[in-house]
Design goal:
By secondary structure, this protein is an alpha+beta fold. Helix content is 30%, strand content 31%. The protein has a single domain, classed as Arylamine N-acetyltransferase fold (2-Layer Sandwich). The strands form three sheets. An eight-stranded antiparallel beta sheet has the order 5-4-3-2-11-8-7-6, covered by helices on one side. A five-stranded antiparallel beta sheet has the order 1-12-13-14-15. A two-stranded antiparallel sheet has the order 9-10. A hairpin with a 2-residue loop joins strand 12 and strand 13. Helix 4 crosses helix 5.
Length: 265
């Protein structure tokens, strides 16, 4: 478990101000701060072709000490360790990243569940896309407005839950030319699992032919938007405005990674 010094360093890393408490207010603020400060990113997987180390010391060093990011198997695990150290009842869950695709997706994501005052909350700082900027109460059919974004949990079969969102996204891409609609972004299973269950999944999704191996993918939430990068193309959405920037070479790309994602590579 993280020491008090490590907890404080982590809170400083994500820009959380004040004394954290085991409360819904703290949980929401921690999620939002994390999404704004720590990027979803796959740079090392793409550069080295290897799955990242998932032990606690390596994750803390990468995310807190070296101010890098990671993908779900890194970010949601490290955030879970922080929440447990603060005193939250947090555990990992098997998930399916759907993003509106037809048919059933394979289990491909490490999610996070917090039980607080008898309510289960789904939260995510490692999705690299459209996840709530706070904790989502798993209450069947209850639409929830989280910082201006509308999400609705939907129970599928007792154990599995779908998280639906009002969006213009088409698969992984925002499309200004399509109408807003409700689509399933994520499915979450409440069955208890162990940390070791995610190692093989991380290895599988770091192999050649996968998105995270074949491309540099980065995403970071803004106060009212996000930065999203795929290889040499950066999309900026801020206060309703969209800007697309293309980089000509690695030097420009590395400068952008530092400027927009805080990543020194």
């Amino acid at each position: 478990m993280f020491s008090q010094d490590q907890i404080q360093a982590y809170l400083d890393r994500i820009g959380f101000v004040g004394e954290p408490s085991v409360s819904k207010e703290t949980l929401d603020e921690l999620v939002f701060c994390h999404q704004k400060s720590v990027p979803f990113e796959t740079y090392d997987i793409h550069a080295t072709g290897k799955a990242p180390a998932l032990d606690e010391a390596s994750l803390y060093d990468k995310i807190v000490v070296r101010c890098r990011g990671g993908y779900c198997f890194e970010l949601n695990k490290t955030f879970e360790l922080l929440l447990v150290a603060i005193g939250f009842d947090a555990r990992p869950v098997l998930s399916r990243a759907v993003r509106g695709r037809e048919g059933r997706m394979p289990i491909n994501h490490r999610g996070l569940l917090v039980t607080l005052d008898g309510i289960d909350y789904s939260l995510d700082v490692g999705f690299g896309g459209p996840m709530p900027a706070g904790a989502l109460a798993l209450i069947d059919g209850q639409e929830q407005n989280i910082r201006g974004e509308l999400y609705t949990p939907r129970n599928i079969d007792g154990m599995w839950w779908a998280i639906d969102r009002i969006t213009r996204c088409s698969l992984d891409f925002f499309d200004d030319n399509v109408p807003e609609r409700k689509q399933t972004e994520l499915e979450v299973c409440l069955a208890k699992v162990e940390d070791i269950d995610f190692g093989p999944l991380s290895t599988a999704f770091s192999q050649p032919g996968t998105l995270f191996h074949d491309f540099i993918v980065c995403n970071r939430r803004l106060e009212n938007g996000h930065y999203a990068l795929k290889d040499y193309v950066l999309t900026i959405r801020d206060n309703g405005q969209k800007t697309v920037v293309e980089f000509a070479n690695d030097e420009e790309l590395n400068a952008a990674l530092l400027e927009y994602f805080g990543m020194r590579v």
